[in-house]
Write a structure and sequence with these properties.
Oligomer: single chain
Number of helices: 16
Shape: globular
Radius of gyration: 21 Å
Structural class: alpha/beta
Length: 369
Amino acid sequence: MDSDIKPFNISISDAKIAQLHHKLEHATFPDETPLSDDWAGGVPLSDFKRLVNYLKGDFDWRQQERRFIEVAKILPLLTNPDSQDQPCFDDVAPSLPNFGFSSGPSKPGSVLEQYAESCHKLMLKLGYSNYATQGGNWGNGITRFMDIRYGPASSSATKKSGAVWASHINHNLAVPPSISTIPQHGSLVYLKYLFPTYSNREKEGLARTHRFWEEGAAYNGLHCHNPTTIGIALRDSPVALLSWIYGKLYDWTDSYPWTDDEILTWISIYQFASAGPKAGCRVYYHSATAKKVEEYNPRVKLGVSTFPKDLLMSPSYHYRTLGPLVFENWHNKGGHFAAWEVPELLVEDMRVMFGGLVKSGEINFPGPK
């Protein structure tokens, strides 16, 4: 392990917290209408006012800042298996540039590729020459770029630079098969595309994906094309930030019972982020053309988990256009934030996939050096 790696402690200044409270004290709210407290019109106003009052009053950021990361629920499950038959993982959960308390990337170009490079360099710095990855949300695209750039036998994956041997992803969207991709995934997959017979869960997944693009993706277009426009509002107004993100936490989960502390901790991570809350918007702008993640990659073994209330889902056979699929599971519950909503289901999939590959001798991880 590199000797210059040092611990990092989150410590937001009292002045920043005081400034947040000052802005919240002077917040103004829209007039009540018949839609004010109906999720059909967006965030319910009375619910929102309660959160604002709690954020400026009894919410204890100091307690939360010492312990929060999105994967906090899955880490103890991965490192402390229930039995000797289950694999035990070394876990590295990077804080992505532009998010949380990491700085933003300085180079132009695709940020997902830069994130992949940063994550790979981090693994090497920690002493891991071979490793597996898991990613959902932005982590899906980052994982895919890591597969492409650092998978076995790729131009960038030498013995010196290390390699990704297997990847597991959720929040999945795959392109349909085509005649040109038959040599990669086989003719049967293409025939299923020509003569589709979807299962009920696939039909529901396609309907939810369509509904998301029709009704829920307006934010995506704004982030992709005008990130500064929304970024200005989010940077200046914690009320705007809370409204913008809270709606997503509700819409993108499978009736998950969010507590006020959970909601406000997520919002505060953006509010106090080193690069500012607007930085997350720029990720969309710089990732709008990241199409390589949809290409077939034959070098890295792939696993896929699908959760019914996620935003994007494809028919099962589409996933075979991404790479050599060795694991697939469709769950009956869970949404976009699977690591937070249903950590036990996500971890079990990782145990089955990665543990099975190690037991069969298909992959081997020597551990850090």
